[in-house]
């Protein structure tokens, strides 16, 4: 059985993630961590969630704290602490402010929960994964971000609707930045096990329109309802379930790569990774055609954002 801690638990994503994670059978303890001053809200969340556990028949020991160090003994620590973007902002506009929070948090986690897996949700998630990796002092397998998993799910849903098939029949991946430079892998997209480009209807697929929809999904949802919640919350739970169930699923998360993809490396970026109880292990893959150049571009962009953030952090600390 496992202890899961959620940082930023008073936020939109944190609260719903607590609900989705509580449904995972391996979770025995869940700790919600918020900022000092938010005790009443945290206590309210715990009572409300406990009621839902009773109604559902879930048996999770739930507690809250304003001290990150109480994450001690956690198997998985999820960080959704930090500013969300407002309409019109790019995720990268949040980089420095959220990096300060992430660096401080990661240092504490590195000391109090050295064996945990640290899962970043805070945006811009690729740069935040790199910051958390550096300041926690963890091994690369222990630190990962939600990356392009949610983007991949968004594309999967659009493809399933276009072909009028159940989502479980569609396998697809978006790699690279969780942001503008994301790269769809049509070469790795199958429907009912058949490569999408081998289907007669492929030529009519509005591929560019689909990718544009995925790229702008977050912003469109934030404009409409203030925050993306259900998509990220379920995506977070999928990853936590994969880890705690030692499932060895290959999901697309932000992970530190060295040379797994066309020799490109030294960056935290969305890539397919095998995920189990020991953490996250990028899978070496070959890309096709435009995908290579697209991935290189995405890597260059993330490296630049990450380097700028690291430099400013060094100066500020
Ligand atoms: N990677 C993804 O796919 C994805 C999806 C959704 C949201 N996000 C990101 O997750 C983060 C949270 O989003 P949200 O909608 O829940 O935001 P929110 O404003 O509702 O919640 C933010 C949380 O962070 C905490 N926080 C804010 N400043 C802090 C500080 N200085 N120190 C400690 N904690 C602090 C708040 O108390 C709150 O719990 C944002 O960065 C958002 O962009 C990422
Ligand atoms: O778009 C955002 O800022 C939130 C998140 O990254 C998302 O894609 O839902």
Automatic annotation (TrEMBL):
Its EC number is 1.1.1.37. The keyword Oxidoreductase applies. Keywords: NAD, Oxidoreductase, Tricarboxylic acid cycle. Residues 3-145 form the Lactate/malate dehydrogenase N-terminal domain. It catalyses: (S)-malate + NAD(+) = oxaloacetate + NADH + H(+). Gene3D superfamilies: Lactate dehydrogenase/glycoside hydrolase, family 4, C-terminal, NAD(P)-binding Rossmann-like Domain. The keyword Hydrolase does not apply. InterPro entries: L-lactate/malate_DH, Lactate/malate_DH_C, Lactate/malate_DH_N, Lactate_DH/Glyco_Ohase_4_C, NAD(P)-bd_dom_sf. Residues 148-311 form the Lactate/malate dehydrogenase C-terminal domain. It is an enzyme of class 1 (oxidoreductase). Catalyzes the reversible oxidation of malate to oxaloacetate. This is malate dehydrogenase.
